[in-house]
Each structure stands twice: as structure tokens, then as C-alpha cells.
Amino acid sequence: MGSTWEGGSHHLLDPQGSAWAQEAEGWVQVAAPMAWLSPGHGTGTARKRLALSLYLLLIATRGGVFLIPYAIMLLFTGLPLFLMELSLGQYGAAGPITVWKCCPLLKGIGIGMLLVSSLVSLYYNVIISWTFYYLGMSFQSPLPWSCDAPQNAHLCQAQNVSLGNASRISASEAFWNEQVLGVVHSSGLGDPGPVRWPLALCLFLAWLLIFLCALRGIRSSGKVVYFTATFPYLVIVVLIIRGATLEGSIDGVRFYLSADWSRLHSAQVWNDAASQIFYSLGIGFGGLLSMASYNKFDNNVIRDTLVIAIGNCCTSFFAGFAIFSILGHMAWRKKVPVGEVADTGPGLAFVAYPEALALLPGSTFWSVLFFMMLFTLGIDTLFGNMEGITTAVIDEFPSLRDFKRKALFLAGLCFAFYLLGLLLVTELPTPS
């Protein structure tokens, strides 16, 4: 540690941490893009702006031409900033705040990283609780959002009658709005309604799992991530194979790869590409810097940057075939263009894709597999955020390195996040 400035002590705290941390974070950052969500805009719609992947959402709304600005932003912004953050963390061997002892004037950057990670962790686990809820409801036959469920018979009959688009609502959309969000039970922001206790229980279990993993530190998280980050790859491969056997899947793939070149003239497309690169690589959140601080001082950080960042984007591209092949089948079944079923916002993850899974033979199995994948992706992404928060605080307050004090700190932090998260699982105001 003689080569680092005073204060870098992670290697001494966890001599075996470097091996676990680098490998675990590598897998986390490769797998994370499917789990990141788009930021909300406006108080009334913040919780509704969710997608399976911002990448897939943007493909659905911008077209396949989005891959071009996406690749350019990766090359000119993603890779340099990713390398810089890993290098800083590895050289300083300290968290997002303490590492700025090299230049105290910039310590506010670390504090900003801590605040951003805290805000993201707060609402991100709410997303995981939604996924957990869907996972639990998937152990039913028929699925509660399918047309085979008795309570949805009137909705599916209405869809088969030419009533006009305004009066049509799918069974999966009704389940999402009424059973999950409770949209129809609130008149506005002044009437948030009660907490939806099934979601509150799922949120509590999600925070309990995060607490237990974070309590054991980087080595425990690294071992868990071996499963949580590799399992989704298995599911993606299975879904691609299954999707390729379905009627209409080629239409979904064709939509996925189609390009409308005129969209390149829109500044919004380039802005979305830059946002997605920052979100999927985790740049500026502090998690990368914290994980890199456990590396050996002479670790090949350039190799890690290339493998993780390029692997991240390739995973996003690969996952798109699994999603759009099944959406193509859904469009074939409904006899509508693929663009009409490639929903935006939360519709892709919690409306359109579950509805598509409900159309498959053995729908319960596929639904369990899909939401298990989303759940593991969400958990391993949150590991990185929580590691960034705990590392930053413990570096500033070394007395918390004692196991009992660390346990109390983590318990208080997770419980506080849980209480704040309850505000996000109340009934959602009905759009005006």
C-alpha cells in the first residue's frame, strides 16, 4: 500500500476482497443493463416510468437505429469515464468520499455520488418488490393476468369485440393497474390512499435480503453474485430458443433490427443513448469506485474496462432477441403490428411481456423463470449501490468497521430505506 495516499486501507480490511470484488463486480456490471430503469418525470408518474430495460424500451420507441448513437456514446463517453472511475478507486483504495483526499476540493463529488446512490437504492428496491410480487403470483395456474383466469373473462371478451381503442384494456394491464399499483383507487396526489401491504411485505423481504448479503461484506456479495448474475444468462438463452420456435417471432426480430435513419437527426435520440450508457455502466454512482478499491494495486484495469463495458452492451443486444421474438409472437396472435405490443414505460416489463408469456404453453413455468431472472438482476445491481454507500460511510467513520456496529448501521440504513420506500407503494393517483 506504499504507492497509495494515506487513507486507502481496504486491502488491509479484507485481504481476500480483491479477488471476490473484481470478479463479482465484473459480472454485476455485465448483467446490470437489463435491470436499470428509466428515471421518472413529474411527481404523478414517477413510479410508472419503469421498463425491463431502458435499452429495450428505447429500441421499442426509437427503432433499431438507436444502436448507432448507443455505440458512439459507449466509445466516446462510456469507456473513458468507466476507466477513470475504476482507476481512481483502484489507486486510492478508498470509498467515493475518502478517495478525494488527493484533492479535498473535489470531495463534494463523492458526497454527490453517495446521495445519488441513496436515492436510486430507495426507489430501485421498490421495483424489485414489484418483481417479487409478480414472481409470487406466477405460482398459479392459470396466471392471474391471463385470459384463462375467470376474473378476466369480461376483459378478454371486450377485446375480441370491435369497441374502439379507448375502451379496450388487456387483462395484464388491468392486473398491473388494479392489483399491483392500485391506480383506480386514488383520486390524485392529495389522496395517496393506504399502503398496499402485499407490496410492503415484498419490499421488506427485499431489504432483508440486501441487509443479510451486505452484512457479510464484499466476499459474501461476490459469492452471491456468482448466481444472481449468471442465472439470467441461462434464462435469456432458454427464452431465445423458445421464442425462435414460435409463429411470428421473425416479425419481432425484424422490428428489433429495423432502422429509421431519419431519427438520427433528433437530438433526443442522442440524449437517450448517453443516458442509457451512464445508467447501464453505473458511472457516477460510486459503486464502481467502491468495488475497484478492493482490487490489487497492479490489477489490469484497462482489461477490466473493456471486458465489462463491452460485455455489458453485448448482453443488452443479445437480450433483445429474447424479448422481441416473443413480442413478435404476441403481435401475430393479436394480428397487430409489433410496434403496438412493444409498450413503453412499465408496460414492457409488467404488461406486454407477462401477457406474451401467458400465451405460451406452460405459461406458469415461463413466468416463474422470467420474473426470477428480473429479481436476481435487480438484487445483484442493488449490491453495487449498497456497497458504494456503506464503503463511503465506513471510510469516513472507521469505528463502524467493528462487526456489531456495522450490523447496527446497516440495519438502520435498510430500515430507513424501507420506511421511505413505503411512500412508493401506496395507491397511485389516476391519470387525469
Describe the 3D structure:
With 432 residues, the protein is an all-alpha fold. It has a single domain (69-425), classed as Amino acid/polyamine transporter I. The chain contains 18 helices and no strands. The chain has helices at residues 10-13, 17-31, 54-62, 67-92, 107-137, 153-159, 171-181, 197-215, 217-228, 231-244, 249-257, 267-281, 287-292, 301-334, 338-341, 347-358, 363-396, 403-421. α2 packs parallel to α14 (301-334) and α5 packs across α18 (403-421). The chain is globular and about 65 Å long. The termini are far apart. Residues 1-7, 11-54 and 162-167 have low confidence and may be disordered.
Entry summary:
The protein contains 18 helices and no strands.
List descriptors.
mainly alpha, globular, 432 residues, disordered N terminus, Amino acid/polyamine transporter I, single chain
